Every structure is written in structure tokens, then in C-alpha cells.
Q: What sequence folds into this?
């Protein structure tokens, strides 16, 4: 036997250790990312390990493991993500809750300066979204928040 065939036989014989290492690596990465992608890859690796234990050649183990991981990602991951996010509170909070609120211009608002009183009672430094100046007392709509400044536009009735 030549060295190459001995090496291939050795790799094939001990491939199960490679599968176990891959599974462990994917599970550790999954614990850090928590988005189920690496969990699906770990499950595919488990399928590859099982294929190796029943005696399939290494190339077949790799093909079947890759196909299984792809199927898990396509068909198992989406329902798991949906189930995970099912109980999230859909209520917007913090800065997100301010987007779309109406208010009144307390001073003329330009792209450089201005001040608004928002319908929730807060007073914010403001700038206009476009070059249009909004006069004092005009109704506004918050389009975005940039740091501690509300980016506003005139409120259409």
C-alpha cells in the first residue's frame, strides 16, 4: 500500500472524531449567536456522523451531511425562529415609539435648528427633514430621531 491510500483509510476510519469536533464547534458558536443557523449545521453534522457509523464512505457522509444541514436550515429553522419570537412584545419603545408621533413647533424649525413639543409631552430639539422651514406653532410629524434631535416634517392633515 502506498502512503496516500493509508492516509485515506486512516481519515475514513477516524472521521467520527472529526464529526464530533464539528458538532461541538457548531454548538459553541450557536450558544454565542442564538439564531439557529449553527444548530442546523450541528444537526447536519450529527447526520454525517450517523452515516459514518453505518459505514458510508467519507464523500457520501459529507454530501448527506451538507444536504441534511441545508434541509434543516430551509425547513426547520424558520418555524423555530417564529416560535422563539412569538412571545415578543410588539409594542414599540424608546426612540422607536417616537417615530410617527405628532407635535407642535415651539420655534421656527430649519435644517439647522428648532424645537418641538411632542404629543407625549416631551420637548425635543428639532431639525427639518428637507429644506422646508416649519414656522412656530405649525403641526409636525416626527420622521426620525438622530441622537437627541428629532427630525421632523410638516404634518399633513
A:
Amino acid at each position: 500500500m502506498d502512503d496516500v491510500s493509508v492516509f485515506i483509510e486512516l481519515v475514513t476510519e477516524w472521521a467520527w472524531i472529526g464529526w464530533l469536533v464539528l458538532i461541538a464547534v457548531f454548538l459553541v458558536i450557536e450558544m454565542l449567536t442564538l439564531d439557529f443557523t449553527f444548530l442546523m449545521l450541528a444537526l447536519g453534522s450529527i447526520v454525517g456522523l450517523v452515516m459514518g457509523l453505518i459505514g458510508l464512505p467519507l464523500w457520501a457522509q459529507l454530501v448527506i451531511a451538507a444536504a441534511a444541514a441545508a434541509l434543516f436550515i430551509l425547513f426547520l429553522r424558520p418555524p423555530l425562529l417564529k416560535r422563539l419570537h412569538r412571545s415578543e412584545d410588539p409594542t414599540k419603545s424608546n426612540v422607536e415609539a417616537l417615530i410617527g408621533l405628532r407635535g407642535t413647533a415651539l420655534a421656527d424649525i430649519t435644517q439647522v435648528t428648532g424645537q418641538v413639543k411632542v404629543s407625549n409631552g416631551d420637548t425635543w430639539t428639532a431639525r427639518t427633514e428637507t429644506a422646508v422651514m416649519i414656522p412656530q406653532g405649525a403641526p409636525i410629524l416626527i420622521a426620525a430621531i438622530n441622537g437627541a434631535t428629532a427630525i421632523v416634517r410638516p404634518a399633513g392633515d
Q: What stands out?
A: The chain has five helices and five strands. The two ends are 86 Å apart (CA to CA).
